[in-house]
Amino acid sequence: EVQLVQSGAEVKKPGESLKISCKGSGYSFTSYWIGWVRQMPGKGLEWMGIIYPGDSDTRYSPSFQGQVTISADKSISTAYLQWSSLKASDTAMYYCARLFPQGSFGVWGQGTLVTVSS
Amino acid sequence: DIQMTQSPSSLSASVGDRVTITCQASQDISNYLNWYQQKPGKAPKLLIYDASNLETGVPSRFSGSGSGTDFTFTISSLQPEDIATYYCQQYDNIFLTFGGGTKVEIK
C-alpha cells in the first residue's frame, strides 16, 4: 500500500526552528515529486513547494520562497519541511502529498499540526 | 503565477439536488485541472484529474468538464456524505495553485 506518514504535532515558540517529516512507503520514493501544502485554521489549501527526491530538484511557490526549506533524504524515503525562525502566523496544518505525473496529488499524508505560540 | 478563481465560496442544497462549482484560471491551462474533496479534520482526497477523469473508486455522481480557462465540477445528486469543502487545483509545469474552495452544506 502506498503511504505517506507524517511526523506528529508540534508546539513551538516564536523564533524557534522546526523540521517536520513525511515518510513514503509502498512505492519508489525517488520517482515521484513530493509537495507540501499549508492549511491555516479555517482556511483553504495553499501549495508551498515541491521536491523530486531522485535528484533533490526543488521548486517553491513565490509566496513561500525564502520562508521555508524543503529537502529530502532518499536513503530513508523521507521528505522534510523546515523553518529557521517560526512566527505565530506559521500556525497551521501542513500536508505532504505525492504528485502524479499529470499533476494531481493522489496520495496525501495525514497532516502535521504546527502551533506557534508564546 | 496562475490564479484560480473558484465559485461559489459556499452553497446549500437539498439531498438529491444537482450541485455545480466553477473554477476559472487566469490563463490557459489546457486540461491540467484537478478537483479534491476535503471533509473536516481529514486530508484532501482526489476526485477528478485532468479536468474530467474520475479517480478510481470515486462515485460516478461526481464529474468534471472544461478546458482552457473555464472548468466545472458537478455532483449529479447530492448525498449526505458529500458534505465537504471542494477545491480545484491547476498544474503548470510543476508550479501548482489551489482555488479558494467551496463549502457544500445540506439545506
Radius of gyration of chain B, CA atoms, in whole angstroms: 13 Å
Structural class given helices, strands, pairing of chain A?
Answer: mainly beta
Structural class of chain B: mainly beta
> How does the overall form of chain A come out from the CA principal axes?
globular
What is the mean pLDDT of chain A?
97
Quaternary structure of the protein? heterodimer
Could you tell me how far the N terminus lies from the C terminus of chain B, measured between alpha carbons in angstroms?
Answer: 37 Å
Low-confidence stretches of chain B: none
Main sheet overview of chain A = 7 strands, mixed
Q: Beta-sheet strand percentage of chain B? A: over 45%
| SSE topology string of chain A | EEEEEEEEEEE
Helix content of chain A: under 10%
The average pLDDT value of chain B, as a whole number, equals 97
Give the N-terminus to C-terminus distance of chain A in angstroms: 40 Å
Strand count, sense and barrel status of the largest sheet of chain B are: 7 strands, mixed
How many strands appear in the DSSP assignment of chain B?
11
The biggest chain-chain interface is: A-B, 23 and 25 residues
Number of helices of chain A: 0
Any overview of this molecule?
With 118 residues, chain A is mainly beta. Helices cover 0% and strands 52% of the residues of chain A. Chain A has strands spanning 3-6, 10-12, 18-25, 34-39, 45-52, 57-60, 69-73, 78-83, 92-99, 105-108, 112-116. In chain A, strands 2, 4, 5, 6, 9, 10 and 11 form a seven-stranded mixed sheet that branches. In chain A, strands 1-3-8-7 form a four-stranded antiparallel sheet, with no helix packed on it. In chain A, β7 and β8 (78-83) form a beta hairpin. Chain B has 107 residues and is an all-beta fold. Chain B contains no helices and eleven strands. In chain B, strands 2, 4, 5, 6, 9, 10 and 11 form a seven-stranded mixed sheet that branches. A four-stranded antiparallel sheet of chain B has the order 1-3-8-7, with no helix packed on it. The interface between A and B is medium-sized, with 23 and 25 residues.
